[in-house]
Design brief:
CATH architecture of the largest domain: 3-Layer(aba) Sandwich
Distance between the termini: 7 Å
Radius of gyration: 19 Å
Shape: globular
Number of strands: 16
Number of domains: 2
Low-confidence stretches: none
Number of helices: 12
Largest sheet: 8 strands, mixed
Helix content: 25-40%
CATH topology of the largest domain: Rossmann fold
Order of helices and strands: EHHEEEEHEEHEHEHEHEEHEHHEHEHE
Structural class: alpha/beta
Length: 327
């Protein structure tokens, strides 16, 4: 029998705290060497401009095995009134290989992406961080703000988005959800200047702010771009920062934010200071001074999905949530 979990089911059991704990544990396990995880495969779908991704992983220590299938179609919201990112995930029993759970993974994807910024911020953001500058007012931006508020005592968020109607609705909704001041920023400069944390959650193909605007001590999380032809961060931002990635192989294969400066000779691969798992596990230090600018560049890894999915499966099974079917 296979447990089937709808998006509503997943939302009913998964909290940001649970997700942060699961993602942090997954990165710690990744650093220990007990995770088998190939770089995700991508199929570009011409015409609509979408991408079809498969992301498998096996976590040996925690005995979690599965694969996420995710599509990213930037035109969906405007043309079809659908989310940009749509995902589903299959968990298997590591002992038998049999499927045990099929779940909607769109909400999971948004939550684990917010959680990975939160995990990075625990080690890379100043403890006294109070102000967030957030680019983007979509689904990913919501969980980014939820995540950072879970690990730092944020008081104010300045949000910038080219869609003013969506931006205003986002600010109203997230002010109520987080209990902090959430307000529109007038432009990119205002979003960055005076912010302790800067988060980019957009579908932009070109850099969205100038690295010269970053103040000493800022923590930056770049999570919107995950392909070689997309960049949210300029070369100045990359060069000024202590650079931490989710995984070196993934960053060097998929992150235009990093690969482009390397190709242009601005930095070398040695500019990557550490993988997040190395910092979470204590192999390397995170932030070491108040003045340094720290940057976490995320491409998104299957270990985040599978570790979170196992937590969802355990919680749903314990609470008898979902529907069981015979395949």
């Amino acid at each position: 029998m296979v447990l089937v979990l709808s998006r509503k089911d997943v939302e009913s059991v998964l909290t940001m705290r649970d997700t942060i704990d699961a993602v942090e544990a997954g990165f710690r396990e990744l650093a220990s060497g007990s995770v088998k995880m190939p770089v995700r495969t991508a199929i570009r779908v011409e015409g609509p401009g979408g991408v079809f991704l498969t992301m498998p992983a096996y976590l040996g220590a925690s005995q979690a095995l599965g694969v996420k299938v995710v599509t990213v179609y930037p035109k969906n919201p405007g043309q079809h009134k659908l989310p940009t990112t749509i995902a589903s995930l299959l968990l298997n029993n590591p002992e038998t290989g049999a499927p045990v759970c099929l779940m909607d993974a769109s909400f999971l994807t948004a939550m684990r992406t917010g959680a990975v910024t939160a995990v990075a911020a625990k080690y890379l953001a100043r403890r006294d961080s109070k102000v967030v500058g957030l680019f983007g007012a979509g689904t990913q931006a919501r969980t980014q703000l939820m995540g950072i508020c879970a690990v730092r005592e944020i008081k104010r968020a300045k949000v910038y988005d080219v869609d003013t109607a969506r931006l205003e609705a986002f600010c109203r909704e997230m002010a109520k959800a987080t209990g902090i001041v959430v307000e529109p920023a007038k432009d990119s400069s205002a979003t960055v200047k005076g912010s302790d944390v800067v988060i980019t959650a957009t579908t932009s193909k070109t850099p969205i702010f100038k690295g010269e605007w970053l103040e000493e001590g800022t923590f930056v999380s770049g999570i919107g771009s995950h392909s070689l032809d997309a960049r949210e961060l300029d070369e100045v931002t990359i060069k000024r920062s202590k650079l931490v990635v989710d995984q070196r192989d993934a960053a060097l294969a998929e992150a235009g934010d990093i690969v482009t400066p390397i190709k242009d000779g601005v930095i070398t691969e040695k500019h990557i200071y550490a993988e997040l798992g190395e910092i979470v596990s204590g192999k390397k230090q995170g932030r070491t001074t108040k003045e340094e600018i720290t940057l976490f560049k995320s491409c998104g890894l299957a270990v985040q999905d599978i570790s979170t999915a196992k937590r969802i499966y355990e919680l749903a099974s314990k609470r008898s949530i979902g529907m069981t079917v015979a395949l």
